[in-house]
Each structure stands twice: as structure tokens, then as C-alpha cells.
């Protein structure tokens, strides 16, 4: 099994995941825009197990449909590295940029596409959802 490691900017918070991502997506919701300081968040979902090294600060956000998401970021440099959904220990979502891999697979889905900035272009085969389809 192959392993990949994602890291914050200063390297003090890392997560090691196994295998290929279960899915890659982008989220254009305003919460993700604010959280990342960008116009969307790019995330890759992985099945457990995963291994975290370093100390993370946590921020809990309640999604539009009531799910509670626990975001982990580095207390030194502030980089958001990964998040989980409260009560779901079987998967983790990792910030694609934290892998620092220009060859990372492209997104398959785009959520909150209704909030996508007009100048952002996605690959033609991306499935877009106006809001969160869950």
C-alpha cells in the first residue's frame, strides 16, 4: 500500500494517509472561502486508518444540514491541513494543497457551485452541485 503525507507550511502538523483518495472535490461555500482565504477549498477524502503527527488546534463548524465538522490547523503557521465529521472515524478530508503535489488528481465534484466565482473554471467532467448534495 502506498502512503502520502500532507503537511502544514511550517511542517509541524502532518497527516499520513494510505492509498488513493476515495474522492477529490472542491467546495465554493462561503465558510470554505473564509477558512482557506481562497475562492474555494480543494479536498481529498481518504478512508481510515490515517496517522497524525504534531499538535493541531481544532475549530468546529456546523454545516448547513447540521453536521459538525472538526477542522484541524497548525497552531504555529495557521495552515488548515485536514478535517473530519464528528461521529465519523472512518474517513478524513485532507486539503489538497497540503500534499504540495502538482500531479494530484483533479476534482470529480464541485459543491456550492452557485457560489463559485465567475472566473473560476473547472474541468469539463466535474459534476457540479448548486449546494451540498448530502
Automatic annotation (TrEMBL):
Matches recorded under InterPro entries: CENP-V/GFA (IPR006913), Mss4-like_sf (IPR011057)
Keywords tagged on the record: Lyase, Metal-binding, Zinc
Chain ranges of the CENP-V/GFA domain: 3-113
Gene3D superfamilies for the chain: glutathione-dependent formaldehyde- activating enzyme (gfa)
Cross-referenced PROSITE patterns: CENP_V_GFA
Keyword Transmembrane set for record: no
Similarity comment text for this entry: Belongs to the Gfa family.
Record's protein name: GFA family protein
Amino acid at each position: 500500500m502506498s502512503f502520502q503525507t500532507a503537511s502544514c507550511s511550517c511542517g509541524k502538523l502532518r497527516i499520513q494517509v494510505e492509498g488513493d483518495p476515495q474522492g477529490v472535490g472542491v467546495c465554493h461555500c462561503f465558510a470554505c472561502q473564509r477558512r482557506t482565504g481562497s475562492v474555494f477549498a480543494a479536498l481529498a477524502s481518504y478512508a481510515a486508518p490515517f496517522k497524525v503527527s504534531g499538535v493541531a488546534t481544532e475549530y468546529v463548524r456546523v454545516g448547513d444540514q447540521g453536521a459538525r465538522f472538526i477542522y484541524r490547523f497548525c497552531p504555529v503557521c495557521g495552515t488548515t491541513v485536514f478535517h473530519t465529521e464528528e461521529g465519523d472515524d472512518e474517513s478524513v478530508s485532507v486539503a489538497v494543497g497540503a500534499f504540495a503535489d502538482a500531479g494530484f488528481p483533479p476534482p470529480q465534484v464541485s459543491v456550492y457551485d452557485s457560489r463559485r466565482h465567475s472566473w473560476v473554471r473547472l474541468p469539463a467532467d466535474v459534476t457540479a452541485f448548486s449546494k451540498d448534495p448530502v
